[in-house]
Structure prediction request, 464 residues.
Amino acid sequence: MANQRDEQRLALQGGLKAVSKIEGKGKPKIGVAEFMSVAERFGFSRRTLKQIRSAVARDDMGAGPFLSNYYANLKETKVQAFERAAREVFGVKYAIGVSSGTGALHAAFVAAGVGPGTEVICPAIGFFATAAAVVMSKGIPVFCDVDESLSMDPTKIERLITRRTVALAPTCVMGTVPDMGGIMRIARKHKLKVIEDCAQSCGGKYRGRWVGTIGDLGCFSISGYKIVGGGEGGLLLTNRKRLWERANQLMECGGLWRPVRFAPPRYKGELFCGTNYRMSELEAAVDVVQLRKMPATVKRFRTVKMRILKQLGRYGEVVPQRLNDPDGEVGYLLRFYPETVELGRRIVEALNAEGVSASMRRKDAHPDWHQYSYMFPVTLKTGPTPVNCPYECPVYLRRGGRAAYAREDCPVADDLFDRVITVSLNQWFTAADCRHVAKGIDKVLSAYCTEDPDAAEWIRSKAG
Prediction:
């Protein structure tokens, strides 16, 4: 009878526990098989994979790893380590690891106040994601023509500014850097935010400052296709706390980033609905290592390009791409403009025959979402529903907005994008490789062009 009373008495009152131990023991949710799946993706041989499996199978993994940036029983998750590395490398106060460069852009535009009735000035050349993220933020992209750097031309920005304009979105194009000095002067004059899209030039600098840290927000694609990254990821940088909080609000599901995540707003406008652009732990584990390697990677690319450029002759029928900061660009491509598409076609054919990897679009090429007039999801002005937001948004129309796009809007971009010749460079070129590539370029240009000591220099800055 006493034992029965003890069993019924609450443990809090001195009774026996109902559950004193758990007998069932399962396997980790994420264990050796998942680890081996990752190892296989690295391309190890079957023999090495067998050795790895034998080694890791000897360990007791307990419950296994929890591959999330939240609730992990760690001093620092890999995402947090990646964000810390970004703050240290770029010298900024705030960094957010995200799932993609496009996600970073979307969050940055929302943070900067892009929404119904607003416009953002974007470059005519640069990947479609920049303009698409403006539309996703319910704003309207307005395309600005480029100069011979293939970046946004600061002299053509002011004519595009209206009372609807809230931001400029200069883009680093394939290793180069925009004229950020001219762009920032205009932005500050008109009190506009600047969102730098540095997806293609992580590690680039303008007058000693990292791109991505010059404007109000900087966005990067951290992916296997870019200078830094192993799969699909992104990074957002800023020095302004409120912009960091607003960007987090969008990409962290409307408030998960906050110290007390489910609490009421701490100030007016803090809370609004967001989505999930969170970076994964596996991606961050690769990217934190990649980011630390970035300065050395960029230095190798710059060294290769400068070695080649300094050995090239000058020719009357070709114009080298303008470099807004020759010492600051990443430099994984060498580009120049032949006088005509036909001349360019012959030069490209000859360069490839010499063993120099070269290409040119030409006017008969397929559409390319790096050029404004081919960005059909934007230029056709079709939304996902018949309401057709944001192009026919009543707020936008009431403010005098009338989005219109035509190929002739940006004639310099139309011309240069079709006839630019691109020579691919490799960071691992030796000094001898650079000599051979330079010799091959000179050999071809000498055959098709006229040597001219007064022609444009290869290392040609904006001032030059």
Notes: DSSP finds 14 helices and 13 strands in the chain.
